[in-house]
Amino acid sequence: MPRFAGKGYKKRPLRRYGFFIAVAGLIALLLLQTSPRLSQQIEPVRTAASDQLFHMSKPSLIDQITGASAKDQRIIELEARVRELAQYEALALSMAERLEVYEDILNMQGEPSSAEVTARIMAEADGPFAEALLANAGSVNGVEVGYFAENDRGLVGRVVQVGLRSSRILKITDFNSRVPVMGESSGLRAIMFGGRDGDGRLTDQPEAGAFIRGERILTSGEGGLFPRGVVVGTVQGQGNDLKVDLAMSKGQLGYVRLKKSPLIPAPEALDSLGETVEPNEAELTSTASSGGQP
Amino acid sequence: MSRAIAPLSMIARWWTKARPRLRLAVGTVLVGIVGLMGLTPNVFFGTTVSWPYMALIAAIGWGRAGLGFSPMLVLILFGFAQDVTASAPLGSFALVNLATYGLKAGLYQAFDAERSPGVSYGLPILILFMGIIIVWLLASLSSNHVVRFMPLFASFLATMFVQMIVAPVFDLGVRAAAGREAML
Which of A5, A256, B2, B160 registers the highest number of CB atoms within 10 A of its CB? Predict the structure, then answer.
């Protein structure tokens, strides 16, 4: 085996200094990020890095080796499903038309239609720091911070960072996520956050009334981060220790639909002459994003 | 049978003669490949597989040769890439990798002069565990709550398992200064 001679030995103290300087530098970098302002300045670097890293990534080798035949089978199944669902499409269209007429008659404000992008999940980060997904759609595809993500079963999370060709989705299973939800049957409201075992936990529950075990949990639309009525999961557990069995975990996480959250217009301000003043774009955006984070 | 073994023995001979810089490059490529594979969803037959921290394995392997600028630089760069992928504060994984590397270099310099089996096999596991503990501490501190330890422990077991298999790839072919002094 090759061995170092005297050259390496002489360099040893310098290496030791280098090591301690590097450690001190990294600790300083970590401490600097405790300042929100400095942390925000680092964010563009992180966004650019993740953009470059994940734009380059391709489907994994293992995926190609083990998943090819399963995917073919899945495509056949999905094609059959599409044929089956096609007959419901016409029915749904006619019902939507009728619903629109009814809403007009009742002067009811329905959920506004939203922009939609389907993206492939390029990477998952279920590590100790954050539970996030990286999707291969970014600002060039029209994705913006605040878009929410759902898979074939239900809500997945919310876009918290957008690069040119990639976006980071904070999953609803993350401890720091907060989703305003309601029970489909009971109509009770609560806030859901990510639990320790990949499920959701309900907090800020109403004092009167209780969620019904097994009832579906939907987004309540409060705060304007998510539209009303997106499926989140079903209630499990009893008493105050309620868990939400998340619907998204029963579906696939290979692809997600990124949808724009509805903008709630700020109330018009009245000027001195009694005329309404239209809110500008910045006000609209701030209204939609001021309700916390998922 | 001997025909099948022949290419392997040829690789082994080539690896024995390989210079430290080439060994470092091979290790770097391996960490990069396994790390990129780990970014894709690791679900096999419906079960999510814990992915090993390859950079920690590299830190432990390279640390045995004592401190060096090239391994330090590579570990810091891998750390930044891990920070980006894991949504961790920038510098967290670089610090973990570097701390593990320094710990291994220091402890081997202190205890591995005689190359006792206990130190050779036990110390990497202990240092790996300490590295995982640092990850857990940093994650808990940065997110303001105690993060779950079990997924990290699963990753530790996966890392330990992989480390036992691929350890020779991260042997730079030189020993820490104390060992060298003893030999010289």
Answer: A256
Query: Per the structure block, which two tokens stand in for A220?
Result: 């309540």
Measure the CA–CA gap between A153 and A233, rounded to whole angstroms.
9
Structure-token match 């060992």, residue found: B179
Residue A183 falls inside a structural domain: yes
Instruction: Compute the distance between CA of residue A196 and CA of residue B87 in angstroms, rounded to an integer.
Output: 18
- CA R_g for chain A: 24
**Interface confidence: ipTM more than 0.95:** no
What does pTM read for this prediction?
A: 0.64
Residue A221 domain-assigned (yes or no): yes
Domain membership flag for residue A222: yes
CA B95 – CA B175 distance, rounded (Å)? 23
Q: What is the pLDDT of residues A111-170, one digit of tens each?
A: 655 678 888 888 777 777 778 888 888 888 888 888 999 888 889 999 988 888 889 999
Q: Which residue in B44, B90, B143 is closest to A176 by CB distance?
A: B143
- Where are any strands of DSSP class E within chain A? 116-126, 131-135, 148-150, 155-162, 167-171, 179-183, 189-194, 200-203, 216-219, 231-238, 241-246, 255-259, 269-270, 276-277
Chain B closest-CA separation from residue A222 CA (Å): 25
Instruction: Tell me if A29 and B88 make a contact (CB, 8 A cut-off).
Output: no
